[in-house]
From TrEMBL:
Pfam families in alphabetical order: Polysacc_deac_2
Annotated protein name in UniProt: Divergent polysaccharide deacetylase family protein
Keyword Transmembrane part of the UniProt annotation: yes
Family annotation (InterPro entries): Divergent_DAC, Glyco_hydro/deAcase_b/a-brl
Keyword list, A-Z: Membrane, Transmembrane, Transmembrane helix
GO biological process: carbohydrate metabolic process
Domain of life of the organism encoding this protein: Bacteria
Annotated segments matching region Disordered: 78-122
Species of origin: Stappia taiwanensis
Lineage, highest ranks first: Bacteria, Pseudomonadati, Pseudomonadota, Alphaproteobacteria, Hyphomicrobiales
Transmembrane segments: 20-43
PANTHER family, alphabetized: DIVERGENT POLYSACCHARIDE DEACETYLASE SUPERFAMILY (PTHR30105:SF2), UNCHARACTERIZED YIBQ-RELATED (PTHR30105)
Length: 392
């Protein structure tokens, strides 16, 4: 019997054909491929993907090589940025500004001045007679100058730092106010280590005698310059104070008196002077004069407004700045704490500078503290050795 709708109800016997959405399937596959490619590019780090590649065979491996098979290529600093020496002669901008010691030091004689120092650190004293090449007559006495050959007072009168421990942290100490009290001056010269730098006030009595005593004992010297504080004249540093109201002529007149009070010093340091050191024009006039005379400038760090570091950098003035005042509270425990803080600063930045006054308690504490300094992994150096330290 032939099939009919009764033997195959509802069309169950008919063959069915599937109509697949081929367009949608193709679009889906394309989307998957594009997405996979984007994920691969984003996740897999191959910055050279798609570029031509080449494989190069290595002819030898590093097996069996010793340290002698490798060398270090010297990297020379750029010499493009040219500047000037402290004496105004041509030089490199990044050239060190610290002391340039003469290769063959001469000895001191009684017949007249000789140009160089007698001793290296720890061996003996320093020259105590002014070098004739480094002085010129002034209206109030001899003034420091750069020699015709380019030697500076900083070069000749500096104390060479010991080279025994070149890689250890270093500390420079300046004790100021010498010459005002005969007792304190003598105690500082005789009791403090030779690497402690001594700062002399310009008003002291017998300054030349004390200078010779200090130099014979090996101390490097600074001359303290009175400068205008913010509360001047209620707070007066003393006669011939450098004021911000001075023009160039007036400043040079007062400076010529101050600089002629002493000889054989490597540089100057401010005494007070918060207002003066915060005034660009006045401080620039001073540092120009100091630089031309071959001296260094030390900021005692007492004023946070001081612009000395920036101006000195621009003028290429040999410069150093104190990190802290050791005896701002003149008690043994406080001084000891400040010295420990100074040690920490030296270990952190390589070189640290502290300033203090010639008080009996300060001299006592510094003398005791310095005795085992090297055993604690630190070295005491003169202030001139801190000139070329890395900026803080």
């Amino acid at each position: 019997m032939a099939g009919n709708d009764l033997s195959a109800p509802l069309g169950l016997g008919k063959r069915r054909y599937l109509n697949l959405p081929l367009g949608l399937i193709g679009a889906g596959l394309a989307t998957v491929l594009v997405t996979t490619a984007l994920v691969w590019i984003g996740v897999v780090e191959d910055p050279l993907g798609g570029e031509p590649m080449a494989t190069v065979p290595l002819e030898r491996s590093v097996d069996g090589l010793s340290s002698r098979d490798f060398g270090v290529v010297e990297i020379r600093p750029s010499l493009e940025n040219k500047g000037q020496h402290g004496d105004g002669s041509p030089g490199e901008e990044n050239e060190p500004l610290g002391p340039r010691f003469e290769p063959k030091p001469a000895t001191e004689t009684e017949n007249g001045p000789h140009p160089a120092k007698v001793a290296v650190s720890g061996v003996g004293g320093l020259s105590f007679r002014p070098d004739a090449r480094l002085i010129e007559p002034g209206p109030h006495g001899p003034l420091p100058k750069v020699s015709d050959g380019g030697l500076r007072p900083l070069d000749i009168y500096a104390r060479p730092a010991s080279q025994t421990y070149t890689a250890v942290p270093k500390i420079a100490i300046i004790v100021g106010g010498l010459g005002l009290s005969q007792t304190s001056t003598q105690a500082a010269i005789e009791r403090l280590p030779a690497d402690v730098t001594l700062g002399f006030a310009p008003y002291g009595a017998s300054l030349d005698r004390w200078m010779q005593h200090a130099r014979r004992d090996g101390h490097e010297l600074l001359l303290q310059l009175p400068m205008e504080p913010f509360d001047y004249p209620d707070n007066d540093p003393g006669p011939h104070t450098l004021l911000v109201s001075h023009d160039t002529k007036q400043l040079r007149e007062r400076l010529s008196w101050l600089l002629s009070r002493l000889t054989n010093y490597v540089g100057v340091m401010n005494y007070m002077g918060a207002r003066f050191s915060a005034t660009d024009t006045s401080l620039a006039m001073l540092l120009e004069e100091i630089t031309e005379r071959g001296l260094m400038y030390t900021d005692d760090g007492s004023s946070s407004r001081s612009k000395a570091e920036a101006i000195a950098k621009g003028l290429r003035t040999p410069f150093s700045q104190a990190d802290l005042v050791i005896d701002d509270v003149p008690r043994p425990a406080e001084i000891t704490a400040r010295l420990l803080q100074l040690e920490g600063t030296a270990r952190a930045q390589g070189v640290a500078v502290g300033v203090a006054s010639a008080l009996p308690v300060t001299i006592e504490q510094l003398s005791a503290w310095s005795k085992d300094l090297e055993e604690r992994g630190l070295q005491l150096v003169p202030i001139s050795a801190s000139i070329d330290r890395t900026p803080r």
